[in-house]
Amino acid sequence: MATYLFLLFLIQQTIASQTRRLPIIEGEQLLVIPALSCLSPAEVDSTSWFNGTGTHPTKLLVNSANNSKFGNFLIDEIYGDLIIQRVKREDAGFYTSQVVATDKVNGRTNTYKLDVYYIDFPTLTSYTENNSSEINYVIFHCEWGEIYPQNDPNITWIHNGKTLDTKTTKYNVITKEKTSTLVVHKFSDTDFGNYACRITVETKKGNMTKTSNLEEIGPQKAVSNVDEDTSSNKSIRKRSLGLWFIVFVCATVFIVCVIGVFLSITNRKRKRDSRNVYQTSEFTSSITGQDHGDNLPVPPYPDVAELVNIPDVCDGTTMATIETETISVNCLVYDEVPN
User: In the chain, how many H helices and how many E strands?
Assistant: First the structure.
């Protein structure tokens, strides 16, 4: 078993060393001529092309004997050449030709590896920076997809069908990964028109070149962008007004609450002061004998002003008696000022 695997490995290595590489650019026509060795076309009975290597062909593509074909593959019935009208990137892989001689003894088998080079079309977008109805500068973004082989592409910028000299100070080019950016400064009337980007990749079969879509920059572009900016500014102003209205309402509610608390405190203080005044009035009435209806003679009591040194008469009790060296009075104390 080990010997069999070793022999199979040697056969595969021999086939790999004899494999012919066929590089081609996507979209081109492929013509593969089978190796007939020492056979002439008249000595060839049939030629078949398979998908896969010589030891592991997986699918019959075309056969010159019965003119069979599969998909995009054709065969020259006389010489047995394999023809692919337009090569696609999916066609890359191994192909095997099998030539059978008329004597059914001699023949030839060869393997080919097809390398398809391809590049995706780039896409171009633009952005304009406006001041009123004038354009300050324009930014172009050129983006591309897959590239095989993965060589760095050369970027060419085109304006109205002519190549731009991007080395001047008017232009600024930045290329990073799969995007190239062109900035056009000091945009003027001569800069209006159609713009495009073209990418070129060098390969063994020549250069691959793809051009992007056209991007038109004109006066109407500037006006439309100004309109867009104006509408966006209006929406921003509306949002700002809404926020300011919310702030105003919150501030008003806060001020009303503060005023309410202040008035409440002031009202309580006023009631407390009124209570103290009423107690003083009752105390004065008791001294002078007024407002009681007893018609008692008023003795020569000290003036009310002289009673300021009398101890606290309103200590919270219902009835309090004040006794001094000269007078004896009653003071009626209320918890609240009567109406």
Answer: 2, 20
**Other residues' Cβ atoms within 10 Å of the Cβ of residue 32:** 19
> What does the pLDDT average to over 317-335?
45
Whole-angstrom CA distances from 201 to 148, 153, 156 are 9, 5, 12
Question: For residue range 104-163, what is the model confidence (pLDDT) as tens digits?
Answer: 777 788 899 999 999 999 999 998 877 656 778 899 999 999 999 988 899 999 999 999
Is pTM beyond 0.90? Reply is no
The DSSP call for residue 71 is T
The pLDDT value given to residue 42 = 78
| C-alpha dihedral (21, 24, 28, 31), degrees to nearest 10 | -20
List, in order, residues 6 or more apart from 268 with CB less than 8 Å away: none
Tokens representing 161? 């069908």
- Give the Cβ contact number of residue 107 at 10 Å: 17
Sheet strands (E) in the chain: 20-25, 30-32, 44-52, 57-63, 73-75, 82-84, 93-101, 107-119, 123-131, 134-143, 147-148, 154-159, 162-163, 171-176, 179-184, 193-203, 206-211, 215-217, 319-323, 328-332
At 70 the pLDDT is 64
Structure-token pair, residue 248: 């105003």
pLDDT confidence of residue 216: 92
The sign of the torsion formed by the CA atoms of 133, 143, 166, 164 equals: negative
- Whose structure tokens read 């004997």? 65
Ranking 137-141, 144-148, 191-195, 292-296 by mean pLDDT, the lowest is 292-296
Question: Closest Cα to residue 191, out of 275, 126, 259, 283?
Answer: 126
Cα dihedral 292, 295, 297, 303 sign = positive
Tokens 């300021």 — which residue? Answer: 308
